[in-house]
Amino acid sequence: MRTDHIPRVKEYDFQLKNLGLHVVDLPFSNLSQTLQQILLIGRLTFTEHTAVSLVNQLQQQINAIKAAVAGTTAPRVLLEVDYCSGTV
After folding, report:
1. Where residue 76 falls among pLDDT bands split at 50, 70, 90?
2. Which has the closest alpha carbon to 35: 13, 63, 16, 68?
3. 3 backbone dihedrals φ, ψ, rounded to 5°
């Protein structure tokens, strides 16, 4: 995982906090943590009902995919991620 962008992120966080804004950093995560982060964002933005609905919908889709591939052999996959200079 790249970490060279973290000083810039912290600088932006500091600047935003100085403007009186609330800042919440959501770290890179796995799918389960992402679902939890959606719920957190829902609580923080007073849209918890919408967040819960979204997480339930996503969980149903995840469960359907798991059921569809149950008992099958996982494919062998190579995922190459290329970092392009100048992007975050």
Report:
1. very high
2. 63
3. -125, 5
